Structure formats: structure tokens, C-alpha cells
Amino acid sequence: MSRYKVLINVASHFVTDNVEGRILGAFGTNFWRSFVYPFYTPSGRTVVENFPFDHPFHNGIFVGQNPVKVAGREGNFWAFPVPRSHGDHIMANIGRMDPQGPPTVEATDAGARLTVKSIWRDQHEQPLIDEERTVTLRSAGDATVCDMASRKIAAYGDAEFSKTKFGSIGLRVESRLLPVLGGQVIGCLDGELRRGTAEEVASQKACDAVAYESNVPGVGVYGVCLMIRDNSDSPDRRGPWFIRDYGMAMFNATQDGPIAVPTGGHWTAALRIVAYDGPLTAQRVAAWSAEQGQP
Question: Which domain holds residue 277?
């Protein structure tokens, strides 16, 4: 029997660690997208939100992109059609990520890997691109690790992922870790930790890792750390980061310019997310970054 087990509850695939006797997190799919929620530290504290009141399309650990353009057509794979006000400008050209069956599951002593293949369809249900998403969950002693990779394939014509703030892979941070409730944003560069607000230490700045951390009264210190694992369009692994005090934490590869993928080609972006207990240190960041794992 492998160390890790995947338990299915309707649309959710929960990953458990049989040795430590705990739940690591879950990967699931709704009509619009697939995402990870919840995602737990070793002591059982979740570090992501299902969604906040004002942004119902910020879901746990997720992939999003707007716009995606193929052959004169355009799809919005960032927002859901849940208007937040009359004439909400974000609610246009809404597409969806259509899974082609349930995730395939591989549970070994190294972790539990879930893979789902989806067709990204525009508002008229016509295909724009194909995607292969892989999510690997595992224990790391003092933390829980989630590796998420999104491989986008230009299967229906040349694809353009336009310059935008709405992309590419990241998470919505649990509210107790936010600066407004006493938390801090942390930017790590060359072994040095910078603590403060998002604008001061992380957003649109070169970082080897970005974290949110708080000492919650009656709970203790815990946090979530993000590290870029892959961007097939660039060798840079220090950004671009779109980081906000309100809890939007994204590696946005299209923040500074578009990515063009010819027919038959692909673009892969991957992120490592670590849910941890206790204070963050540069040594912990280095150790988590050095782990091979998946992807």
C-alpha cells in the first residue's frame, strides 16, 4: 500500500497521508474550472479560500487567463458569469475549462498525482485550446507541498495569451494570513526575507519565493509560500509576480507581455505552493525549492 491515498467525494478528490494520518488537500472541478481547495498545513489549517465575497472566480489554487485569442475568436478564462454589479466589465466573452473525464490518479510513496485534460471553450462552446493540468500533493515534514502545472496546447490554430493582469497560475490566500488582519507578505530573494506589504516586498518585484504569514491569536504562526517551477516561455523563475494585500497571489507570466504559441505548440507554467506551520526562514525556502518532486 502506498503512503498516499485518494478518496473521492462527488467532484472532489481528497489526498490523505496514511503515515501521518492527515488530509493534505483536495482537487476538484465545477462547471467552469478545476482547482485545489482546501489545502492544509501539517496542523490542519487551510491556507487558501474557496472564494471571497467580491471575487467568486478566485478559487483556491487555480489557473486563469484572459484573454486567450485563436483565429479571430477570444475567450475569457478568468471570470465566471456571476456579475458583481450592473455592467460588470470583467463579465465578457466568458469561456470555461471543460474536463474530458475525471482526473487520472497515481498514488505512490512519493505523493499523489492527479491529471486532468480539458478543452478550453469560448462563450459559444467552441474549442480554443487544450490543457493538461497536473496536481501533485505530498507531505514534506514541516509542510505540505502542492505542485501544479498547466500545459496549454494550441490544438485549434495559433494561440495568443495576451498581455494582461488576469493570469496565469496562483491562489486566493486565506483571510487570516492577510495584512489587514495582522499578517505579513514576505518576499524572498537570494536568501534574504523582506517582510511588509505586498507593494513593499513582492508585487512586480524579483522574488525567489513569495509568502503570506501570520501569528494568529489562539492558533499560532502559519503561512503559505509560492515558488515558480516552470515557464516554458522564459528562463526567469523570479517573476513576474502579481501580489496583493487582499490575498490575490499569482505568478503571471503574461503580466509584462503576450505569449504566442504556434499551432501544435504549447506553453507550460508551473507553481509550487507550500502550506507550513511556524515562522518562515530562508533555510526552509531553500529546502523546499531544492526538492525535486512534481512537476
Answer: 4-290
